[in-house]
Amino acid sequence: MALDDDIRILAGAALFEGFTQEQLRLLAFGAENLNVAAGRLIYAEGDSADCGFLIVSGSVRLVHGVGNAAVELQVLGRNAILGELALITDTSRPTSAIAATDVSLIRLNRRLFRRILEEYPDAAHLLHERIAADLQELVAKIARLSSRFGE
């Protein structure tokens, strides 16, 4: 894909909403385009995570557990980001990601992403606000579901 195509695709992801063209260009410049065939493993649960992936096309299954104990948690499609926490901090993969269909991905490097946040504090502020809002939404969702769990 051309650099301008990658920039346009990155701009469509909610995580990068509010990033400038310059910031998106830097991110795209250091990104890697990957194609993964249906049924192939993208990453395994427990693996060290040093990057995130943006789904350009196709769909990806997130699975927890192994073998007969494996449970499909979610299927993600276009513009979803896999492993966004890995863009910010050292972590391990909480799930396995498996290509549900043939999938095109943009692999996003943590080192470059962190450099952009350091050089552009406005982007870091936007990301902080987005993460805080997501956390508040998660806490509210847990509170709504708390009655389903025993005391």
From TrEMBL:
SMART domains: cNMP (SM00100). It comes from the Bacteria. Gene3D superfamilies: Jelly Rolls. Pfam families: cNMP_binding. Residues 15-134 form the Cyclic nucleotide-binding domain. One of its GO terms (molecular function) is DNA-binding transcription factor activity. PANTHER family: CRP FAMILY TRANSCRIPTIONAL REGULATORY PROTEIN, DNA-BINDING TRANSCRIPTIONAL DUAL REGULATOR CRP. This is Cyclic nucleotide-binding domain-containing protein. It comes from Tianweitania sediminis.
